[in-house]
Amino acid sequence: MTRIVAIGECMVELAPTGPTAEYRMGFAGDTLNTSWYLRQLLGPEDQVDYFTALGADTLSDQMMYFLTQSSIGTDHIIRRGDLTVGLYMIQLAEGERSFNYWRGQSAARTLAQDAATLTQAMIGADIAYFSGITLAILPPQDRERLLDVLRQFRTNGGSVVFDPNLRRRLWDSAGEMTSAVMAAGAVSDIVLPSHEDEKSWFGDTSPNATAQRYAEQGADIVVVKNGPGQIVTITNGELSMHTPVNVADIVDTTAAGDSFNAGFIASRMQGHNLAEAITAASTLAAQVIQFRGALIQLPSS
């Protein structure tokens, strides 16, 4: 049995149901999306837990119910009586998405206020998974606290997996974002960046440069997603390239990277080698982007 704890923010999602202005309410968020797909890919003996903070209102209760019904562990979720959950709306144009967010009263922004609570949530875990968005929603002192706990978790034998998921609008400055992301890379065993984002904010001239930068920061494995382009990996200093699954009819790219991450992590947890894990990750992402919304039920589940 393997236990993975994902750390981040689950939000209310308003996703378009078609070309007209009609929306469906659901629950999603980058680390939650990865947890959802991990739960479908892994066996019943494996544990997928989610660590966040929710309110004590009806929406928060509905979110808690959704997580429980999805067989995602909720034992360590914090409840805040004076806060609620965030909300975002997806807008689509030819398969590409843009977002509007409302998260000022999100309880998830308080998830790292207490080191003991964070540490307790990760006791017995094999893997801790978090993202740049997890970092972005936290006050600076809480961000440092989370990284300290993850550093100790890694020192104690746990594996830390990080998706930089750069979202400039969530940060006070580009410099704050890039500094925090590189600090997170330094406590991580596996880093799963997207070259398009990294090129914009770090000036990387190629996916190879992105991979090398995180490898130099101390990551054992770096997997650089690159849309339809070649996926570049560095494993213990060895560079390799992989061809992703081609998708002719893209419907919605929401959760493309999140599902890729789930496919990669699950495959590695199941003992597959790097190339096999990349294939599994790319295949899953190709499935997901042919449907609307962040979360789809996989045919094999």
TrEMBL record:
Highest rank taxon of the organism: Bacteria
InterPro entries xrefs: Carboh/pur_kinase_PfkB_CS (IPR002173), PfkB_Carbo_kinase (IPR050306), PfkB_dom (IPR011611), Ribokinase-like (IPR029056)
Record flagged with keyword Transferase: yes
UniProt KW Transferase keyword: yes
Spans through the membrane: none
Xref: Gene3D superfamilies: 3.40.1190.20
Keywords from the named record: Kinase, Transferase
Domain Carbohydrate kinase PfkB stretches: 1-299
GO molecular function: kinase activity
Protein family (similarity comment): Belongs to the carbohydrate kinase PfkB family.
Protein name: 2-keto-3-deoxygluconate kinase
Organism of this sequence: Shimia sagamensis
